[in-house]
Amino acid sequence: MGRPLMAKATAVWLVDNTTINFKQIADFVGMHELEVQGIADGDVAAGVKGFDPVANNQLTQEEIDAAEKDPLHKLKLKFNAAAQGEEKRRGPRYTPLSKRQDRPASILWLVKFHPELADSQISKLVGTTKPTIQAIRERTHWNISNIQPIDPVALGLCKQSELDAAVQKAAAKKAKEGEAMSDDERRKLLSTEQSLGMEAEPKIPTAIEGLETFSLSGGSDDGEKEKEYDADSFFNLPDDSDDDEDEQP
C-alpha cells in the first residue's frame, strides 16, 4: 500500500482534526502506534505543522468519516494517476555528492575484474554515464593515472546482491552466445556466495613450478639404460708408475 506525502505532518493533522484511533492513523502513515500516541501527547513531532491530506488530494472526506464510524476500517490512499510509475523511474542511479568522486575508482574496478559487464550494467550499478565508462576502458580519462580500482560494494555505491545479479546476467548472456571462456573468466562470473562456497584448488609452489614431470630415475628417450657410477670412480687418480716409465731413457 502506498504512503501519503509528509507522513508525520499528515499524522499530526489527523490527530488534531479527527477522532480516528491511533492504530488506524499509524497503519495509514506507516508509523508505530505508540509514535502516533506520542504526537497526541505532545512528546513527538513538537512544532510540526499539520498537513491536510484532504486538501492535498491524498484522502477523501468520505474515507475519514468511514474510519471514524468503524474502528476497524483501514484508511486507503486516494488514487492519483499522476503518481503512477514513480517508483520505477528509468535512468541512472542517483549518487550522493559525497560519493560521486568515488565513481571512477569503482568503474575501474568493474572494468578490470568484470570486463564481461556491459556499459549499461555498470551505469546502473554505480550511477554514471557511458562516455565516462568508455574513457576509463580506453584509459583516456583525464585523471586515469591517479585512479585506483575499488570495489563499488565497499564504497556503498551498490549492493552485493545487485552486483551478483549483474554478473550472473552477463554469464548467462555469454553462455547463450556460445563464446568460449577461460578458467579465469569463469571464476569472475561466479557470485560472491558461490565463490566463497567453492573448495580451494591445490596450487604448486612457485619454486618448483614446471618441475612436476621431472624424475631423477627416468630413462632416456631411446630406452638406453643409464650408466651407473660408484663413488670411488670419481676419486681414482692416475698411476704414478706410468709416469716413471716414461721418464726413463
Radius of gyration: 38 Å
Distance between the termini: 125 Å
- Mean residue pLDDT: 75
- Overall geometry comes to elongated
Total strand count, please? 0
Structural class determined from secondary elements: mainly alpha
Approximate strand percentage:
under 5%
The residue fraction in helices comes out at 40-55%
State the low-pLDDT regions, or none: 85-89, 218-223
What count of structural domains?
2
**Given the structure, what is the number of helices?**
12
Helix-strand string: HHHHHHHHHHHH
Strand count, sense and barrel status of the largest sheet are: none
List keywords for this structure.
249 residues, mainly alpha, 2 domains, 12 helices, 0% strand, Cytoplasmic protein, TrcR
Q: Can you give a write-up of this model?
A:
The chain is an all-alpha fold and 249 residues long. The protein folds into two domains: 7-83, no CATH class; 92-199, no CATH class. The protein has twelve helices and no strands. The protein has helices spanning 7-17, 22-29, 33-41, 61-69, 103-113, 119-126, 130-137, 152-155, 160-177, 183-188, 192-197, 240-247. Helix 1 (7-17) runs antiparallel to helix 2 (22-29) and helix 5 crosses helix 7 (130-137). The longest helix is centred in the C-terminal third of the chain and has 18 residues, at 160-177. It is elongated. The N and C termini lie far apart (125 Å). Residues 85-89 and 218-223 have low confidence and may be disordered.
